[in-house]
Amino acid sequence: MTIFGIISHTPFWVWILFFFLILRGYAALSAREMNISQLFILPLLFLIWGVWGLKEAFNFNVASLIGMSIGLAFGILAGWQLWKNQPRLKNKPHSEKIIRAGTPLTLIFIISAFVSKYCLLVWLSLHPEAHHAAQFSALFGVITGLVDGVFWGGTLNLFFSWRKLSPHVRGA
């Protein structure tokens, strides 16, 4: 199948999701105000997408779950390191909101995440026998976990450094 054939057979909702993710990544280039809970939207979205992918493609087989666990662990470590030198969250004066500095990392990893998941799912579509291959399901799990782990690592790095410096914040 040609690239055009692959793209033209991609469901429309996938392109809507990609557009939404690009908008989120573009917004992340600039500083923005948010509630602290909004910090966790993207990591949660990718975690749900990843778990859903393992369920749909491999019915949660052991190899995919182990792969995702390993990928999450390494991704969290990588994300923590990548975001270590990023600007910290700031409390907005006289407000319960925080200010998150802009960074290109979010957009870069959104695009990387989408492309990697898209390629894996296209491979599964073109090679249905891969649904039953333990090696491929493990690879799928590792890549899915790694991508999501990077978002979790970066988010947790920002959150814990903010929480440490903001002991007056409720619930901290």
UniProtKB/TrEMBL annotation:
Keywords: Membrane, Transmembrane, Transmembrane helix. The chain crosses the membrane at residues 12-29, 36-54, 60-83, 104-126, 138-160. It comes from the Bacteria. Pfam families: DUF6622. This is DUF1453 domain-containing protein. It comes from Kluyvera intermedia (Enterobacter intermedius). The lineage of its organism: Bacteria, Pseudomonadati, Pseudomonadota, Gammaproteobacteria, Enterobacterales.
